[in-house]
Write a structure and sequence with these properties.
- The protein has 191 residues and is of the alpha/beta class.
- It has one domain: Collagenase (Catalytic Domain).
- It has five helices and seven strands; from the N terminus they run βαββαββββααα.
- The strands form two sheets. A five-stranded mixed beta sheet has the order 2-1-4-7-6, sandwiched between helices.
- α1 links the parallel β1 and β2.
- The radius of gyration is 15 Å and the shape is globular.
- Bound molecules: zinc ion (2 copies).
- One zinc ion binds next to α3.
């Protein structure tokens, strides 16, 4: 489903990630989706402090509370009923809500600027991938490069082949902050 609103509501679920980190992610989302997403708002939904959360259920809860494009960010594990692994991010095809779990994206502890940047950039890349789905983009089976020479934000690999640690290193760290020409063409056509 494609919403025509150009506003993104970023909702923190649980309280691990800081407000300033959310704002940094929001600002960098605007950079990568310039002209498509024009503003964002940050909300906190901290009564949902859970270790594990059903990905589909949380998108339904957020869809009832917020309008337009919604990005939920949680440090809880995101689980689904048909996959063995928990997921980094997902989106409900019936609404415009995407969710991202930071649980397996960061270094265990963040003690340096470099580790903080790793955490923010991974969360940002998974967020942009899921927002890309919200905007109608589809996963790339192949490893398409974007103009920055890095993988397109919509690239994905065989999860089972990599395992989650390998997936983070190869696919998520391999992505840059740009969409490939084909994705950009689609976005220009639609928005
Ligand atoms: Zn995807
Ligand atoms: Zn692409």
């Amino acid at each position: 489903m494609i919403a025509d609103t150009q506003e993104l509501n970023i909702v923190r679920i649980g309280s691990y990630i800081t407000h300033s980190s959310l704002k940094e992610i929001g600002n960098r989302i605007l950079d990568s989706l310039r002209g498509i997403i024009q503003e964002y708002k940050v909300f906190h939904c901290d009564y949902l402090m859970l270790n594990k959360i059903d990905a589909e259920l949380i998108t339904m809860i957020l869809a009832e509370k917020y309008t337009g494009h919604v990005l939920g960010i949680t440090d809880a594990d995101l689980i689904t009923d048909d996959e063995f692994y928990s997921i980094f991010g997902g989106k409900n095809t019936n609404n415009d809500v995407a969710v991202v779990s930071t649980n397996k994206l960061g270094p265990e502890r963040i003690t340096s600027d470099e580790e903080y940047e790793v955490f923010i950039s991974r969360t940002l890349k998974v967020s942009l991938h899921e927002i890309g789905h919200n905007l109608g983009l589809i996963d790339h089976a192949s490893y398409k490069k974007a103009r920055d020479g890095m993988l397109c934000l919509m690239s994905r690999g065989e999860f089972n082949k990599f395992g989650f640690r390998g997936y983070v290193k190869v696919v998520i760290d391999g992505r840059g902050f740009c969409f490939c020409n084909e994705c950009v063409r689609f976005l220009k056509l639609v928005y």
